[in-house]
Amino acid sequence: MKYVIGDSDVYSFNHYLYGEAYMGSFRGKRFRLGREPLKNVFFSPPEEWGKDASLRASIWDEPWCWEKKDPASLKEKDFEFSEEGLKEAVEWVNNEIK
User: Fold this and answer.
1) Integer Rg of the chain from CA
2) Largest distance between two CA atoms of the chain
3) Which residues of 9-40 are buried (b: 16+ CB within 10 A; e: fewer)?
4) How far apart are CA 63 and CA 67, in angstroms?
5) Are 15 and 86 in contact (CB under 8 A)?
6) Residue 58 and residue 3: Cα distance in Å, rounded?
7) Interval 39-54: pLDDT, tens
8) How far is CA 83 from CA 10, 12, 87, in A?
9) Residue 54: helix, strand or coil by DSSP?
10) pLDDT tens digits, one per residue of 18-75
């Protein structure tokens, strides 16, 4: 299987603590990984990083950017906001975009 996102492509977990998303595209699809809600929690105590939050993976059709995407084409799944959740989200995106 040709992976959409490899280990060297995805940003480290710390990136998501700053309330930033990772976006990319492959084979006519776009994808986004980000904390939900998108919020900078880097300076919060570590036990609060995942409180009431998830890591959301989103996929939609090209050519639209995140702000202009067709909601009907959006597919999303939430994962635990953790290093392990990030790995699971990357695997899900790879399986969805083949």
Assistant:
1) 13
2) 39
3) ebeebebbbeeebbeeebeebbbbbbbbeeee
4) 12
5) no
6) 16
7) 999 999 999 999 999 9
8) 12, 8, 6
9) strand
10) 999 999 998 889 999 999 999 999 999 999 999 999 999 999 999 999 999 989 989 9
